[in-house]
Amino acid sequence: MRVIIVGSGIFGITTSLALRARGHVVTLLDAGIAPREEAASTDISKIVRMDYGADAFYTELMERAILEWRRWNARWPRPLFHETGFLLLSRTILETGTFEGDSLALLTSRGHDVTRLTRRTLRERFPAWDRSGYVDGYFNPSAGWVESGAVVACLMAEAREAGVVVRNGTSVRGLEAQDADATVVAAGAWTTDLLPHLSEALWPVAQPVFHLKPPDPERWRADRFPVWAADIARTGWYGFPANADGIVKIANHGPGRRVEPDAPRVTLPSEEAALRRFLEESLPELAELPLRASKTCLYSDSFDGDFWIGADPDRPGLVVAAGDSGHGFKFAPVLGAIVADAVEGRANDALRRFGWRTPSLRKTEDARFGMS
Questions:
Q1: What's the gap between Cα 200 and its chain centre?
Q2: Nearest of 128, 303, 277, 132 to residue 208 by alpha carbon
Q3: Between vectors from CA 277 to CA 287 and to CA 144, what angle results, nearest 5°?
Q4: pLDDT for 21-47, tens place per residue?
Q5: Measured in whole angstroms, how far is the alpha carbon of residue 170 from the centre of its chain?
Q6: What is the pLDDT of residues 83-104, one digit of tens each?
Q7: How confident is residue 360, by pLDDT bands cut at 50, 70 and 90?
Q8: Could you give the CA distance from residue 87 to residue 84 in angstroms, rounded to a whole number?
Q9: CA separation for the pair 154, 150 (Å, rounded)
Q10: Kind and range of the H or E element at 260?
């Protein structure tokens, strides 16, 4: 088939590779040049982890994705997935029915070597949290973070080498008749600009992201300060170890604020104030540091927190791959095949969950906890 893909973020670029590997003729369009600074796929890092409460579907999908991340590392000039583990913290004892407690129970039942932490063992292994007040949690070694912008750049180079036709600087407003058998809209936060009929199912949401640089970055490296989420179900805060440049990234995955996709990517004073309050309570050594950078990460939220991947039943040839809802990047190694199946009309378990569905007013509770 001749397939046009609109958008070269992580949904679009992985779909182009999967379709090209199946022999299709693929053209990838983007208004900018990937990796785009404005896209959710960029910034310096994204979490890779399989902790999804009691949701066995996402956990199993991430088990597959992590295996593929390791394979991607093996074929790249240098590793871009850093499997340094994931620290999940709670101010209360982990119990059934909580995101943290259910994550621990499900991972343990599936044979994962997660380590339960007490306040004392947390302080001994991860001293930055010494005065944080967290009393329970666990460490999952099968997790970490990826250099997200570098990943997109690497995948783009692979797509070109595979024969994907890449057309940058191509703005698509409204989908006129295309010279293609199928068109995939993978436009992230811009999806409803192109497809207004999906505005009750998808919408752009801004979430704050902050970069800090401690005076002694070595104390904040992954062996002592791994990827973490601190009472994520209640606070939304998560973060990363110091990277090669000594930058510690901290962000929030909460309700966010609805914005226009082309709005400036700036944080609000109230969002920085919330960061400072969190740091004073949890990581006081960082609380007074000046910001090295701040921005908003633009989610394409779906009404239920699940990805939106499927063929439009009313528009033949149109497939939508959107609704990252702040937790799409970690699935990069398996996303392309899922979308490619939608293009080819193949059924699979993922499409039964992610496919076309009727929006409801109720957003599932765990949908808010899929850290980016």
A1: 22
A2: 277
A3: 70
A4: 999 999 999 988 766 666 666 789 999
A5: 25
A6: 999 999 999 999 999 999 999 9
A7: confident
A8: 10
A9: 6
A10: none
List residues bridging with 183 in a β-sheet: 4, 318
Residue 13: burial class (beta carbons within 10 Å; 0-12, 13-18, 19+) = buried
- Please report, as a single letter, which amino acid is at residue 298: L
Residues 342 and 307: their CA atoms lie apart, in Å, by 13
CA distances from 197 to 190, 202, 290, 359 (A): 13, 10, 43, 12
- Residue 173 CB burial class (10 angstroms; 0-12, 13-18, ≥19): exposed
**Residues 6+ away with beta carbon under 8 Å from 81:** 48, 69, 70, 72, 73, 144, 145, 146
Q: 3-state DSSP helix/strand/coil percent for the chain, to nearest 5? A: 35, 25, 40
Average pLDDT over residues 1-27: 97
Cβ atoms of 250 and 261 closer than 8 Å: no
| C-alpha span between 254 and 211 (Å, rounded) | 18
Residues 6+ apart with CB under 8 A from 327: 305, 370, 371, 372
Taking a C-beta distance cutoff of 8 angstroms, is the pair 40, 12 a contact? no
Strand partners, 96: none
Instruction: Evaluate whether 156 touches 8 at the Cβ level (below 8 Å).
Output: yes
Decide: helix, strand or coil at residue 166: strand
Q: What's the pTM value of the predicted model, to 2 decimals?
A: 0.94
DSSP symbol at 178: -
